[in-house]
Design a protein that fits this description.
The protein is α/β, with parallel strands linked by helices. The chain is built from 14 helices and eight strands. The longest helix is centred in the first third of the chain and has 19 residues. Bound molecules: S-adenosyl-L-homocysteine. The site of S-adenosyl-L-homocysteine (SAH) has 18 residues, from loops.
């Protein structure tokens, strides 16, 4: 699909046409990645962060945030829970926190791999090449780093670079791929300044990067951030992408058509916009992954990247039961094993 065709779909409002898009995305999903829905247990291991992303509630400039860092024992405990709940993967995510040292993460990866055998995904920000290498050698399988937007100017405005440290997330992703990681990326939908053209280019960038995992979700304003306070301008009238539920389904569906074999989560940000139905509708319109939260309840509310996050009070067990119920009601099955794209490829 070229840029014009993509923009046409992104702006489409005709219900019959959209029904066709949902049906096509669902069919492509079924043919290429099957009916299994893979569960990736998410552990938000720290909310400390050195970055100043203008969209993110836990960015370094927000003094209101009570900061926490889980201990190695707590993280291992959550990983064991993932195994006991039958998940294939554990995802360790955090702000960019150098208190999470190279050695600490490498040790954790080794222990989780040897004790649970689960696939290990890391999402710890823009760390050094040495960190990425050490973690890969320790056994980490995948790395998630959303590029957030493919437009350099917009990127610079939402992700001011640190002194002496230019940020090139495309280059980091290519490097991670060379190290043998499966790579995941994605964007937020409806950040102020995001135009239809930029979003169409984002979609094409997914293809160009040959991503294994692609996460997209609505941008949700956090009042304690520059973007949430409205300090950055929207795109001109008619050009600004909305941060809506419908927009998210369109992008999930188009992503499935463009990247038929990729793992695509139905995201928590989407569930936050529609708690009753969002996850299911995402799964019916192209997605094949969900990421149940395993973070101990006492820390969950503190990992507030945006307000009103879904499932903030449920325990890990409650999340597991709720999600497997939702998956079965869709006539789909909970995936077994790591649910790796590279393995699916070889089938
Ligand atoms: N520090 C890591 C993890 C960040 S949280 C990193 O930078 O990669 C994971 C994702 O949540 C981000 O990449 C971003 O796309 C999303 N996110 C952050 N703030 C958000 C907001 N206000 N609304 C919606 N999504 C947000």
């Amino acid at each position: 699909m070229n840029r014009t065709e993509l923009i046409g779909w992104l702006r489409e409002m005709d219900e019959t046409r959209l029904e066709e898009l949902w049906a096509l995305a669902d069919e492509v999903r079924r043919v290429h990645v099957g009916d299994e829905v893979h569960l990736r247990g998410l552990i938000e291991i720290s909310n400390h962060c050195v970055q100043r992303c203008t969209y993110c509630g836990i960015n370094a400039t927000n003094r209101e945030v009570e900061r926490y860092r889980m201990t190695a024992a707590e993280i291992l405990g959550s990983a064991r829970q993932a195994r006991d709940l039958g998940y294939g993967t554990v995802v360790m995510q955090a702000g960019e926190d150098y208190g999470l040292t190279r050695e600490l993460i490498a040790d954790l990866v080794r222990q989780i791999k040897s004790e649970t055998g689960l696939a290990v995904t890391l999402s710890l920000g823009e760390r050094s090449d040495e960190d990425f290498l050490a973690w890969r050698e320790a056994g980490a399988d995948r790395y998630l780093l959303r590029f957030e937007t493919s437009d350099p100017e917009l990127y610079a405005s939402i992700h001011p670079s640190l002194p002496g440290r230019p940020s090139d997330r495309f280059e980091i992703l290519r490097h991670l791929r060379r190290l043998g990681y499966e790579i995941g990326s994605g964007v937020m939908l409806g950040i102020p300044g995001q135009t239809w053209r930029i979003l169409a280019d984002d979609l094409q960038a997914f293809v160009g990067l040959d991503l294994d995992m692609i996460g997209v979700g609505p941008y949700l304003p956090h009042p304690a951030t520059p973007l949430g306070r409205g300090e950055l301008p929207e795109a001109p009238e008619g050009e600004q992408v909305p941060s809506s539920e419908l927009m998210t389904y369109k992008v999930v569906a188009l992503t499935r058509l463009l990247c038929p074999r990729s793992n695509i989560p139905s995201t928590t940000a989407l569930a936050t916009l529609n708690l009753a139905q969002g996850r299911e509708l995402g799964l019916s319109r192209g997605a094949n992954v969900v990421m149940p939260n395993l973070t101990p309840v006492q820390y969950r509310a503190l990992y507030e990247i945006y307000p009103g996050k879904a499932c903030i009070r449920e325990t890990a067990n409650e999340c597991a039961a709720c999600l497997s119920g939702r998956i079965h009601r869709l006539d789909r099955q909970v995936g077994r094993g790591p649910g790796s794209r590279r393995l699916t490829h070889m089938k």
